[in-house]
Specification:
The protein is built from five helices and eight strands. By secondary structure, the chain is α+β, with helices and mostly antiparallel strands. The chain folds into two domains: 2-42, no CATH class; 69-201, Alpha-D-Glucose-1,6-Bisphosphate, Chain A, domain 4, CATH 3.30.530.20. Helix 3 (81-89) packs across helix 4 (91-98) and helix 4 packs across helix 5 (181-201).
Length: 202
């Protein structure tokens, strides 16, 4: 029965090869034909609410891989953008923020206050470098978990804006190792946004 279902595909491909027209097939047509013969379909990835992903996972020969996990989160915090900015960039305040997280108490954070300076958070578990610091508006960081492959840094971008007496924090995280999106997205909520809300409300 399997052969009967796919025999038209086999016949068409055989005729094309015999007529030497298979050379004109594109890579996409060959892959799609092989997928049909094998009973499969090209792999696709769906985006979740907190993690976006480009759907097409092909490499087109240009060296560009057209797939990536990315985290996008938007949070309302009952404080001014200046206070939220300080909680993220002042080592003493960030250390107090972490006392509201689920992470066991770690040594104090160290955070450079100028672009190019380094930071170390949660006892050195998170390290990185400040790329751009615009007070009360934007923070961009090269950010990594200490046990990632050496030299692998992701980019975290925090954009702050006043909204109805609060701060709307728009956060984007890209460039982290594949497969870590769900874990990291949950970590930002549990160890950054929720503790920060509690700290700034105290």
């Amino acid at each position: 029965m399997f052969l009967n279902i796919f025999s038209p595909c086999v016949s068409i491909l055989s005729m094309k090869i015999r007529n030497q027209t298979a050379l004109s097939l594109t890579r996409r047509q060959l892959v799609a034909g092989a997928a049909v013969l094998m009973g499969g379909v090209p792999r696709r990835v769906e985006a979740s609410a907190s993690i976006g992903a480009v759907v097409d996972q092909r490499e087109d020969g240009s060296g560009v891989t057209r797939s990536a996990e990315a985290i996008h989160q938007e949070v309302l915090i009952a404080a001014t953008p200046a206070r939220v900015y300080e909680a993220l960039t002042d080592a003493a305040q960030f250390t107090k923020v972490t006392t509201f997280s689920s992470v066991p108490q770690a040594p104090p954070a160290t955070i450079g206050r100028e672009a190019g300076m380094s930071f170390s958070l949660f006892g050195g578990h998170i390290i990185g470098r400040q790329l751009e610091l615009i007070p009360a508006q934007r923070i961009v960081q090269a950010w990594r978990v200490v046990d990632w492959e050496p030299g692998w840094y992701s980019i975290g971008r925090f954009v702050l804006a006043a909204e109805s007496g609060q701060t709307k924090l728009v956060f984007d995280h890209t460039g982290f190792p594949a497969g870590l999106g769900d874990h990291l997205a949950a970590g930002w909520i549990a160890n950054y946004w929720e503790p920060m809300k509690k700290y700034l409300a105290s």
